[in-house]
């Protein structure tokens, strides 16, 4: 059985909407492309390293459409290595409609999303979920992921879709290693799914 990694770019107030560009998800949102001014060489290298060994993508419909319109045309550009990987590996798309799956290697997930995702995990070793905030809520709710990577950026937007927006349930996570930082203040936190649900206690109680 493989591992499902959720990669989320977020602000300090956990807005994850449209980090890449103003036209990515403009629905009631004025800050599309908020990530672009903050990316530096160190963060770029860290992001690139996180995709090493990836052999499948799990994507929501909106993110898939953005990727399908971009990556097939980048194999001779600055992002050629990313493009070669994304164009080569299978892409699994969560959609209630009928997406255009002309991007080579694209497959629509079946109507039973939970079972379909489990089948993908059985089929591949390292699966990446990128963006796809609506789809991510299902994965969080079902605890259908293995690792959660949060790329936290040093800005507060005050509005926009949140990375934990309707899908969060009581969940334990464990930090997989020290936080990684970049000169522009981006912090990468990598967590693994842990058993059980959060415990509670009383900070005012004397030590036993």
UniProtKB/TrEMBL annotation:
InterPro entries: RibDG_C (IPR002734)
Pfam family, one: RibD_C
Boundaries of every Bacterial bifunctional deaminase-reductase C-terminal domain copy: 35-180
Domain of life: Bacteria
Protein name, UniProt field: Deaminase
Organism: [Mycobacterium] fortunisiensis
High-level lineage: Bacteria, Bacillati, Actinomycetota, Actinomycetes, Mycobacteriales
